[in-house]
Amino acid sequence: MIPALLGSFLGMMATGVPVAIAMAGSALVYILLTGDLPPFVVIHRMVSGIDSFPLLAVPFFIMAGNLMNHAGITNRIYNFALSLVGWLKGGLGHVNIIGSVIFAGMSGTAIADAAGLGTIEIKAMRDHGYDLGFSVGVTAASATLGPIIPPSLPFVIYGMMANVSVGQLFLAGIVPGLVMAVLMMLTVAYYAHKYHWGGDIAFEWPRLGKAMVELGVVIGFPMVMWGMLVAGMPFNAAFGLCLLALLASDYTWKFDAVMPIMTPVLLIGGMTTGVFTPTEGAIAACVWALFLGLAWYRTLTWRMLVKVSMDTIETTATVMFIVAAASIFGWLLTATRVTDMVALWVLSFTHSPWVFLLLANLLMLFVGCFLEPTAAILILVPVLMPVVQQLGIDPVHFGLVMVLNLMIGLLHPPMGMVLYVLARVANLSIEKTTMAILPWLVPLLVSLVLITYVPSISLWLPHLFYK
Q: Taking the model in full, what pTM does it have?
């Protein structure tokens, strides 16, 4: 009866049925054909699949990203990045990447980055005479940083499915995200040299100095706070004192980007010191975003807050339905021993972790082109995790590899959501948008190879803080 389960799932997908309905429907077909279980088991397993404390982080991270987008914070991030690197050759290309690095520490999704910052960045690059294809390509590539640099919704889903610490996954994404950003900026530098591009703003020491001081404030905040923690001060007291000092400083009132960039500092600091869980951190991110939008910048109105709430409810309902459907599908894959058979099949021709990682990368790149990342994680983790455990691969490292593969899949048809968002933003056809993105697969695939075969890139920070 295993072919009935897998065949009905693939058949529904081939006819255009949404992936969540295909998973739940194939599970129901299997149960009806076998007759061993009552059909009500489908509903029961779907409900129990979303009855999870870590999953509470999903709506709050979604809401935090929406609040940041609607509160006008994206414009402040763009202006800060422009002051910092806009004077370099190919300036707005570098601004695009630096802006995505910063926004990734707030949104946790690639689509929010593409839709929020992407709209501003593509318009600005078009106004400065950049080729539209280059503008779309660099925006698409930099959007993949959203789920790699913490916080990250895919990491929350993977952590729940693989029984891995979400805090470790968040820390594991920091260095790989920076490596990806450096490789993308080198690509921009190559294009700038090839086409003789200059900077997009004049080099001025006062402007650069202001940006560097702003960056220094952001870097200095966690360093001072860490010193207080080492001295034995509780996290709440250390963060509160540093925040009060920041609010009392003239620099904070002069600089627009300091307070938004504090979001990842709050999240990572709180989780690594054990003050709150990732779920509670998601709530803290929402409270921080509300504080910035309603009280600090006063750009968020109550009408906008209602719209943000409705958008969050809609997105959360979609994600949770996929999780619920995948829970019954994954349970049947395990109960029918499909996962065990896959593990035995893989181990029958290789016991090398490096060969397995190569095969897993090819599989996940292929699957990422056809499935939304959340659905792909929920399907692939139960299948691949037994092999990962038997080969001794660190599940935190494998989580980074899986998420990066699926983010690259977002740039390709037929299911590439970032592709469709940017095609709409740039008013380009899907074919032209796809061609514009193709050259940017080079830095992304080089990043994938480095992250896959140099595990210390991902594991250095988790091992440092989680001994």
A: 0.85
